[in-house]
Specification:
two-stranded antiparallel ribbon, 2 strands
Length: about 110
Amino acid sequence: MGKLLRDFLKMESSSGILLIIASIVAMSVANSGLNEYYQGFLHTYVLGMSLSHWINDGLMAIFFLLIGLEVKRELVEGALKSKETAMFPAIAAVGGWWFQLLSMFSSILITQRR
């Protein structure tokens, strides 16, 4: 079992696989009878703040710091250090941002017309 786990964690895709599994579990819990217990767990207070608050403020800040550091490393010494290789991910990121912006504005306009 230990060798199997070590081999799995060495795979480059292991984090993506774990993320997909965690998403499936989270959606299953959110849409089942366990949702009430999950919400109660998130609103448990630890050191003066709810777990939800700790996740939103603390863990997400650490997550985005790590993402920023990884992007910087890729731009400085990794696969995105030339303009040609960095252009496509940059355009994709801007396109994703615009898509989210337009979808939000369209949903606001649709709900205001009702």
